[in-house]
Here is the input.
Amino acid sequence: MILGRQGSGKGTQSLRIADAYGCVHVSTGDVLRAAVSEGTELGLKAAAVMESGGLVSDEIMNGIVAERLAKPDIGERGVLLDGFPRTADQADALERILTDLGHSLSLAINLDVPVDEVTDRMMARGRSDDTEEAIRRRLQLYEEQTAPLLDWFEERDLLATIDGLGSEGVVFERLRAVIAKCVA
Ligand code: ADP
Here is the structure.
């Protein structure tokens, strides 16, 4: 799985990793955005929360991920989780979900980009949920809820922190180097 501040480039790098290694890319942000644009029940629940920069409830997110990871392509190709887990409750749920399925986590990548840089990047990309207030709230929630997970992964000896500053290609090469160690 990959984690990092919003705007760290983890979405872009995740696509490159999935492409290079042939694994399934599961982005919880993409799942939620698809639900919003399709107007499903999930989408209706998630839209306002996402717009304000909040986090969709753990219960909903854990359910989405449990359902997705149970599909056969995950066992066949492996998976890169992008945007999940984001809270301690989600990390515990992930451990249970993987154990139940007979899978395990091999690596947690922390794509590290400082707050000032991600703020500039998000202001520049202009996504509809990238208002100044929503950006501030998401970064605050990241520090409060998601950053503590770094210790959780570190305790399990799964964490690799990658410097996310530099060109897309340079960052990708750094990612390949840590993935190579783990899949070797
Ligand atoms: P970003 O990294 O910029 O927040 P994402 O695409 O990962 O973008 O997520 C967009 C939004 O979807 C988040 O701001 C949040 O509201 C919601 N979301 C995505 N993943 C989760 C999650 N694991 N738990 C709670 N909410 C989530």
User: Anything to note?
Assistant: The two ends are 17 Å apart (CA to CA). Residues 2-183 form a domain with the Rossmann fold fold (CATH 3.40.50.300).
